[in-house]
Amino acid sequence: MKKLLVSTAVSAAMMLSATGANAADYVIDTKGGHASVNFKIKHLGYSWLYGRFNTFDGTFSYDAKNPDTSKIMVNIDTTSLDSNHAERDKHLHGKDFLNVDKYPKATFKSTSIKFDEDGEEADVTGEFTLHGVTKTITFEIDKVGEGKDPWGGYRVGFEGETSLKLTDYGIDYNLGPASTHVDIILSIEGVRK
Length: 193
Hints:
Layout: H1 2-18, E1 24-28, E2 36-43, E3 47-53, E4 56-62, E5 71-77, E6 81-82, H2 86-93, E7 105-115, E8 121-130, E9 133-148, E10 154-165, E11 181-192
């Protein structure tokens, strides 16, 4: 009987571990300014235009011992797009591009995360919604680091980049053949709850 109880307890512990029960929950540190959602797009093929979304939030779960159980969710306020040029931002906010009055939010929610053997890189797959269109995307992330912070908390950070075809999201304003895609760069530092 004792062996049966021990065997059952071990099996239950293994099942909990496999389902991510040990994963910690993190809040993306936008309050402290230790996260960013940036973008870049070519201008006529001659230079890069850089910008950012100033307002966003999100959460993720992560367990270094079982990283493939990780999950992430990010909400982006599209009205906060900032390319450091007021007239251009007004155009980008309008109907030719993001149409922020109708679509004030973009979201990403992961459906799977697959880390390499070292646990330092992963392929993240999930549903990205922009301009009222939802598509499944996959992109690579790199683990930047993790550990205790000076204020008694615990943090972990990742960075990833993906390239989105504008017409896939119903944005068909002609910017020329060099500007059909926009690169999104997500840098997140999470504070464990």
